[in-house]
């Protein structure tokens, strides 16, 4: 603790990203990255974005991100005024706390979920309450009918991968017309169902998505928020009070092509879903409980060997997965879905470990 720190950061526990070790080459199944490359069209756009000899880089990028917002609006059949983009969905979540959450009632989110929500709530001194998930890790929908100052639900949830049907999202929206309800759809493309069609009906719905997972662009940091014009304007007010240029020229150019290249997107998703289903079946055969996942990762627990031991032994064999030493999930591992080859190495190692 330094005497120079503000009160806001003295007591927070910052988010810990999954490790990115450099000591040797690992099979990385710990940060839910996409194992396949981004659209070749996005790669061409990246090569061109700087201009010859980099002359375009002299100039600031478009602060309104017009072209990308129009491309996303076309994709989702929305108006561009219903689309906002930012530096990864993490930034959009942070902006949302500033834009929408300052009621006297607590913001609600699940107790087992993306841990950044808790960090933002602490940083921005927002009152919050964690809603305990049911024992099977499903979302207790009615608990979100209680008085609140906002709601965040990831769908599918992380790190469980569990999906909440849209009819449940809709009942949460109906019962919360005075609060902003954020549905974090970081993983929706891997078999979930987007709530985007509900935007017309519910002015309190904000959907947040990312290019980091299904579009293989985690390294460029691009997120999108979709919702009613008023919500988008709220986010824009925050952005233009912090940093008008949150997305650089390279990221903007790549994202436009990535969202347009539906063929590449669908092929990549299909491969990941097929691998997920195959690996899940094989894990069940060797004594794992595998939570039904609609994401690009699985959440698993072994009937006899503790997750912490499996985690360490996999790491010794050069395979990184994610272990959370937290209440209720400390006997689970979150395993990102890699290529078939990577997952075969994972399965081979895990068989040696548990059998
Ligand atoms: C549920 C959830 N939301 C948001 C994010 C942030 O994604 P990004 O900032 O890369 O868009 C993640 C990243 O892992 C996530 O798991």
Overall morphology = globular
| Strand order, sheet with most strands | 2-8-7-6-5
Strand-residue proportion? 5-15%
Please give the CATH class of the largest domain: Alpha Beta
The number of helical runs is 11
Average of the residue pLDDT scores: 96
Largest sheet: 5 strands, mixed
- Going by CATH, the architecture of the largest domain would be 3-Layer(aba) Sandwich
CATH topology of the largest domain: Aspartate Aminotransferase, domain 2
Sheet/helix structural class: alpha/beta
The low-pLDDT segments are: none
Counting DSSP E segments of at least 2 residues, the number of strands comes to 13
Fold and architecture overview:
Helix 3 (66-76) runs parallel beside helix 8, helix 4 crosses helix 7 and helix 9 packs parallel to helix 11. The chain is α/β, with parallel strands linked by helices and 355 residues long. It contains eleven helices and 13 strands. The chain has two domains: 19-37 and 263-354, Aspartate Aminotransferase, domain 1, CATH 3.90.1150; 40-260, Type I PLP-dependent aspartate aminotransferase-like (Major domain) (Aspartate Aminotransferase, domain 2, 3-Layer(aba) Sandwich), CATH 3.40.640.10. The chain has a five-stranded mixed beta sheet, with helices on both faces. It is globular. The model has no long low-confidence stretch (mean pLDDT 96). The chain binds pyridoxal-5'-phosphate (PLP). Pyridoxal-5'-phosphate (PLP) is lined by residues 32, 88-90, 114, 154, 158, 184, 186, 210, 212, 218, 223.
């Amino acid at each position: 603790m330094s005497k120079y720190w503000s009160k806001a950061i003295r007591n927070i526990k910052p988010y810990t990203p999954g490790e990115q070790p450099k000591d040797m080459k690992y099979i990385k199944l710990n940060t839910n990255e996409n194992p396949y490359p981004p659209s070749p069209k996005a790669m061409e756009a990246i090569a061109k974005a700087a201009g010859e000899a980099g002359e375009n880089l002299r100039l600031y990028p478009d602060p309104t991100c017009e072209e990308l917002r129009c491309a996303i609006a076309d994709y989702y059949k929305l108006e561009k005024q219903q689309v906002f983009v930012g530096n990864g969905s993490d930034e959009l979540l942070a902006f949302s706390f500033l834009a929408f959450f300052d009621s006297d009632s607590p913001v609600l989110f699940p107790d087992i979920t993306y841990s950044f929500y808790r960090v933002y709530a602490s940083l921005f001194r927002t009152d919050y309450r964690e809603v305990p998930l049911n024992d099977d890790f499903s979302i207790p929908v009615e608990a979100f009918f209680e008085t609140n100052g906002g709601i965040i639900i990831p769908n599918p949830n992380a790190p469980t991968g569990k999906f909440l049907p849209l009819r449940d999202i809709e009942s949460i929206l109906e019962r919360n017309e005075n609060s902003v309800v954020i549905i974090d759809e970081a993983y929706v493309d891997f078999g979930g169902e987007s709530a985007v069609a509900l935007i017309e009906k519910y002015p309190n719905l904000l959907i947040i998505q990312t290019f980091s997972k299904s579009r293989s662009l985690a390294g460029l940091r691009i997120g999108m928020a979709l919702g009613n014009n008023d919500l988008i304007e709220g986010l824009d007010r925050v952005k233009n009070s912090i940093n008008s240029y949150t997305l650089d020229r390279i990221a903007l150019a790549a994202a436009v092509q990535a969202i347009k290249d539906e063929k590449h997107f669908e092929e990549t998703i299909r491969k990941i879903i097929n691998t997920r289903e195959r690996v899940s079946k094989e894990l069940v055969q060797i004594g794992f409980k595998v939570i039904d996942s609609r994401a690009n990762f699985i959440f698993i627990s072994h009937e006899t060997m503790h997750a912490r031991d499996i985690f360490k032994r996999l790491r010794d064999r050069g395979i990184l997965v994610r272990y959370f030493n937290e209440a209720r999930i400390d006997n689970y591992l979150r395993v990102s879905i890699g290529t078939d080859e990577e997952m075969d190495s994972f399965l081979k190692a895990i068989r040696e470990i548990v059998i």
